[in-house]
Amino acid sequence: MAADYIDGLTREFRLAKERCALLVVDMQYASGSREHGLGRWLAAQGKLDEASYRFDRIDQVVVPGIARLLDAFRGTGARVVYITLGAEQPDYSDAPAHLRGFFETTNNHAGTREHEIIDALKPQPGEIVVNKVTQGAFASSRIDQVLRTHGIDQVVLVGVSTNNCVETTAREASDRGYETVLVSDATGTCSDTMQELTVGAFTRLWGRVMAVDEVVGEIAGG
Question: CA dist 85 to 116, 166, 192, Å?
Answer without folding.
Answer: 10, 11, 23
